[in-house]
Design brief:
It is a single chain. About 35% of the residues lie in helices and about 25% in strands. It is an alpha/beta fold. The longest helix is centred in the middle third of the chain and has 16 residues, at about 170-185. It has helices at about 40-50, 70-75, 95-100, 115-125, 140-155, 170-185, 200-205, 230-235, 290-295, 320-325, 335-340, 345-350, 365-380, 395-410, 425-440, 455-460, 480-490, 495-500; strands spanning about 5-10, 15-25, 30-35, 55-60, 65, 80, 160-165, 190-195, 210-215, 215-220, 255-265, 265-275, 280-285, 305-310, 315, 330, 360, 365, 415-420, 445-450, 460-465, 470-475. Strand 7 (about 160-165), helix 6 and strand 8 form a beta-alpha-beta unit.
Length: about 500
């Protein structure tokens, strides 16, 4: 037994984050840690990694009582955490990041860069990672950065690795590469705690599972024999259909027509249509140009050529202002960085795109703003104390609803959803799908980018497939994952091109 947590408790002011956190991890096992956003998973892991202290309970590390006061102390004892968002220094090389904070130095204080690079190269080669010790981290894809984080942990002699949503921003082939790495760590008799919201990947990586709900451990046991429906029921405390199946609508009038749109080098001669009541999926590997297409349609990166029509009227999309004026909305992949003002109240986030309709003689009518925010909180069932609560304190699913409500308040007709369920739990995913269905039924058109193919099959009426900046297929939504990947030209063996370089 590597780690044993018993009755761990933690409060933040008047909020109880952990009531009873129990967990046991053995050497040579991959232990899945599941639960909805806010269930206490991250808090429990931060206690283990020395990032926060506990208010009660007992922690045993390798059979002895432990109470790590800092991540450095936890790392010195063999515990490392690979975070969902990279904590690397982008301007430094792979080798420099691997040894960051533990550089080898000469007596005069000079850093032994050549020796560090050689050791990093040996470590990379030993594990077969598609990395180069001399590459700058800013050149790496999300998967490449994950590999650097793993190298850091292994180089520091960790016995237990905590993975927090390691595949949330990765393609299918990149995720498979992470699974192989986790399997290799298991073979080395390391312990792995693996946090994920992607239920379809559980069987590919895990041995045992612990499920948290409302700050309490509600289930621990082998993954084998535990059905997906039962896992979801443990997570949310009620029965939720594991597979969301949207009832398709008869598409209405054409809302958007794109002809020959280009933005070199990743958007090349794109043509498609979106109709009212239609959800069109956009599939493809990382680097295929999906996000770049959405950014171009929204005017973040003006196109080099081609035309865009909204409701039959040709528009210029040389800036987001022009796209918004035409009724186009973007729900970005990184909602915290590009979709929300985290330090501002929920109400302001909901109305920031439509302040002109809430103002008189240049002055904001605060009463009207509060009323509109309250309407959308009720309409989208956003779990929030009040419109004055800071947006950064909401769960991922509720933050996504706030971003959507911002564009509903503006009266948008064409919605571009870029990875709308990234980093949110299964219950919140269903709620986001339901909001998207409501939008379609109200006459909006939706383009939905997703790396999770089961989601596209569950939600989309049609699926566009991109490869190398071009659309290679327009197929019905009721297709198969194999058919989608055939058009996306999946090549699991090409890790250097697929995983590392953006």
């Amino acid at each position: 037994m590597l780690l044993a947590l018993r009755n761990i408790q933690k409060r933040f002011g008047g909020v109880v984050a952990l009531r009873r956190g129990d967990l046991e991890v053995q050497a040579g096992e991959v232990h899945l840690l599941l639960g909805e956003n806010g269930a206490g998973k991250s808090t429990l892991m931060k206690v283990v990694a020395g990032m926060i202290g506990r208010d009660g309970g007992e922690m045993l590390w390798q059979g002895r009582p432990a109470d790590f006061r800092s991540p450095k102390e936890a790392a010195a004892n063999g515990i490392a955490m690979v975070h969902q968002e990279s904590l690397l220094a982008p301007h430094l090389t792979v080798a420099e990041n691997i040894f960051l904070g533990r550089e080898e130095r000469l007596p005069m204080g000079w850093v032994r860069r050549r020796r560090m690079a050689e050791q990093a190269a040996r470590l990379i080669a030993e594990h077969g990672f598609p990395l180069d010790a001399g590459w700058r981290v800013e050149r790496l894809s999300p998967a490449g950065k994950q590999l650097v984080e793993i190298c850091r942990a292994i180089q520091h002699g960790s016995s237990l690795l905590i993975f927090d949503e390691p595949t949330s921003s990765l393609s299918e082939s990149e995720s498979q590469a992470v699974f192989r790495i986790v399997g290799a760590l298991r073979e080395r008799k390391m312990g792995v705690i693996y946090i994920t919201h992607r239920l379809q990947e559980l069987r590919s990586v895990g041995d045992r599972v612990t499920i948290l709900r409302d700050g309490e451990t509600v289930h621990t046991g082998p993954l084998a024999g535990l059905g997906t429906d039962r896992i979801i029921q443990h997570m949310v405390g009620r029965e939720v259909t594991a597979i969301y199946r949207r009832e398709p609508l008869t598409p209405g009038a054409e809302l958007m027509r794109v002809r020959g749109l280009s933005r070199r080098p990743l958007v090349k001669d794109i043509s498609f249509t979106l109709r009212a009541g239609e959800i069109v999926g956009l599939a493809g590997l990382v680097g295929a140009g999906r996000t770049e297409l959405c950014d171009t349609l929204f005017g973040i990166h003006p196109p080099d050529g081609g035309t865009v029509e909204v409701e039959g009227r040709a528009i210029r999309v040389k800036s987001p202002r022009e796209a918004v004026a035409a009724g186009i909305a973007l729900i970005p992949e990184d909602r915290q960085k590009n979709g929300l003002a985290k330090a501002l109240p929920v109400g302001y986030n909901m109305t920031m795109a439509s302040l002109d309709s809430l103002s008189r003689f240049g002055f904001l009518r605060h009463g009207a703003e509060r009323q509109r925010a309250g309407e959308f909180i009720a309409r989208l069932r956003i779990r929030v104390d009040s419109p004055r609560q800071l947006a950064g304190r909401l769960s991922g699913g509720n933050q996504q609803k706030v971003v959507i409500s911002k564009w509903l308040a503006r009266g948008a007709r064409v919605f571009l959803f870029d990875e709308p369920t990234r980093g949110i739990d299964v219950g919140a995913k269903v709620e986001v799908f339901e909001v998207m269905d409501q939008l379609a039924r109200s006459g909006a058109a939706i383009l939905m980018v997703s790396s999770e193919l089961p989601e596209l099959l569950q939600v989309a009426d049609r699926i566009l497939v991109m490869r190398h900046g071009r659309i290679t297929a327009d197929i019905p939504g009721r297709t198969t994952q194999e058919e989608i990947m055939r058009h996306a030209a999946l090549d699991d063996g090409n890790l250097k091109g697929e995983v590392i370089q953006e």
